[in-house]
Specification:
This protein has about 575 residues and is α/β, with parallel strands linked by helices. The protein is built from 21 helices and 12 strands.
């Protein structure tokens, strides 16, 4: 939690004024029982109505002033808490963006979403309550005890015994429930993960008629979460009854002692009532403190989980200064490159060697799980090679600054992802200052212009989250347009035309070749037709390169390529 308090630095004033006004309110509250004692001892016993009215007006004035102080304290506390949560959320989001694919894969998306939303909201509530009540409640508890000593020392000893007993109960339960609340948050992560998976994969679930089994899985996860919550609820639920028992026993002792002293003439009736009021104040404030501790316990558990994300450092470090590029025609070069995913067991690709010249089109083909996507993900440095080196323009990619490296490369992912907004806004992810001419050209190259022009709003047409209001082929073509609009030196198409028909695919590849002479293109595809005219074809099998060459040569020399090609063109060969 200490490392997160840095986000309260800009709210020092609010963090001081909030508790200060609460203490001011608490001071007025401690004066009330003494005024009540005066009303009883002087006003009621003496039959002095004027005195009673005067003291009642003073109490009303103190109440109004206390209300103003409370509202002011709430304003400053809320401002500090919301500001703290906002800065923390921005910082956490920035940190997550800096993590490499390796760390994000290990942590899990659902966990990160929980940290960004539920955990930070819980922490915000904790900060707000701490600023309002953390000083106020102890101040009234000990203030009431001190005020009791000013009334009668022997009666005040009951307070001395009661307060430690209450503290043992409150803090003992807190120590027991802190680790239990961590388990609750972990269970919440699991439920969120299942929910997210089901909502994103709802079409697949319905296609395979798996609704019932997924409902069972969800119920199992929520039942486990409910059991943990019930367990922690039972422990924390002991707080109120135990505190009530202790305070009520103390109240009985106080009335007994007070009655004896009144009978002996040592104490006035009003002062006994004041002592009872102070005991009631202690009870109310300790209940508030107990509820505060429950919230703070949850907040501390959430803070620990958020700190855990901040403590995860990216395994990928980028240079700040641009390297001196070598004058060479070799745009991309792999030297003995291997990649093993974290916790993945066997390497995804092993001992890969090849060189790509400027302006070449490279086809990458292989069976499912052969390492095609893993290979091209090393070029923009989404992952770092566990062995060997990847070079771009003769320079190790690890020597490039992040922005410089990514500016050279346009990537179209295997899964077409669009964002909520307009078509124009999605395309400008590739080039923020793109002109209408740039947009029109990108649409033409990606074969998107025809269907975009048919839409009522054209470039201003609405795209729903994930592009769900577009067909698979339309989504793929728009993601290609987003990549080519920046006219990168290297363009990677990772199986990004799988939803296109052969004619559109052929037109797309022709348009990309005509973009500019020196663009280097990597085409990952399951279709032999999509890569057979490439300058060089890389054939992968189980993470290893089993063939490099042109189409005609591979048909003669590469058995794996032959199997893929003839499985797709079997009829034409017969």
């Amino acid at each position: 939690m200490k490392s997160l308090l840095v986000y309260l630095k800009e709210y020092k004033k609010e963090s001081i004024l909030g508790p200060l006004f609460k203490l001011l309110e608490a001071t007025f509250e401690l004066i009330i029982p003494l005024i009540m004692a005066d009303i009883i001892n002087v006003g009621i016993e003496g039959g002095n109505r004027t005195y009673i009215i005067q003291r009642c007006l003073i109490m009303v004035a103190l109440g109004v002033i206390g209300l103003i102080c409370s509202i002011t304290a709430q304003y400053f506390s809320a401002k500090a808490a919301v500001g703290f949560a906002t800065k923390l959320r921005h910082s956490l989001f920035t940190h997550i963006q800096e993590l490499s694919y390796t760390e994000i894969d290990s942590i899990g998306t659902s966990t990160l979403i929980t940290r960004m939303t539920s955990d930070i909201n819980q922490l915000q509530s904790g900060v707000n309550l701490v600023l309002r009540l953390f000083l106020r409640s102890p101040f009234i508890v000990f203030g009431a005890m001190i005020m009791a000593f000013t009334i009668d020392v022997k009666a005040a000893l009951i307070f001395v015994v009661t307060i430690p007993a209450l503290s043992i109960v409150v803090f003992g339960i807190m120590m027991i429930t802190i680790p239990m609340y961590k388990k609750v948050q972990t269970g919440l992560d699991k439920v969120l993960g299942i929910t997210r998976e089901n909502l994103s994969g709802t079409r697949v679930i319905r296609a395979f008629d798996k609704e019932e089994s997924e409902i069972d899985n969800f119920e199992a996860a929520t039942s486990a979460l409910s059991l943990i919550q019930m367990k922690v609820g039972k422990v924390s639920g002991l707080m109120n009854p135990l505190t009530y028992v202790i305070v009520n026993v103390a109240t009985v002792a106080l009335i007994w002692t007070g009655a004896i002293k009144v009978e002996l003439g040592i104490l006035d009736t009003g002062l006994v009532v004041a002592l009872l009021n102070y005991m009631s104040q202690i009870l109310v404030e300790l209940i508030k403190l107990a509820n505060l501790i429950v919230t703070v316990t949850k907040a501390l558990a959430c803070a620990s989980r958020i700190e855990g994300i901040f403590n995860i450092k990216s395994s990928m470090k980028f240079e700040n200064d641009a390297p001196q590029e070598v004058s060479t025609d070799d745009v991309v070069r792999f030297e003995n490159v291997s990649l093993k995913y974290a916790g993945g067991g066997e390497p995804a690709i092993s001992n890969v060697n090849f060189t790509v010249k400027k302006g070449q089109t490279i086809g990458i083909i292989g069976g499912t799980g052969s390492g095609k996507t893993s290979l091209v993900n090393l070029i923009p440095r989404f992952y770092d090679a566990t062995e060997g080196t990847v070079y771009i323009n003769g320079v190790d990619i690890k020597k490039y600054p992040r922005e410089m490296l990514r500016d050279k490369i346009g990537v179209v992912m295997q899964k077409a992802v669009l964002f909520k907004g307009t078509i124009e806004e999605n395309l400008k992810w590739g080039k923020n200052d793109a002109s209408e001419e740039d947009l029109d050209k990108a649409l033409s190259i990606s074969q998107s212009k025809e269907f975009v022009d048919k839409k009522d709003g054209k470039l201003s047409s609405y795209v729903s989250q994930g592009g769900k209001n577009l067909s698979g082929g339309q989504r793929q073509r728009l993601t290609i347009a987003r990549a080519v609009i920046k006219e990168p030196d290297i363009l990677i198409l990772d199986d990004s035309a799988s939803a296109l028909d052969f004619a559109t695919d052929a037109s797309l590849r022709k348009a990309i070749r005509e973009m500019k002479d020196d663009i280097t293109t990597f085409i990952v595809s399951q279709r032999a037709a999509s890569i057979q005219y490439a300058d060089q074809i890389i054939v992968l099998d189980d993470g290893e390169v089993v063939g490099i060459g042109r189409h005609d040569d591979l048909l003669v020399d590469c058995e794996v390529y032959q199997e893929i090609y003839y499985s797709q063109f079997k009829k034409s060969e017969e």
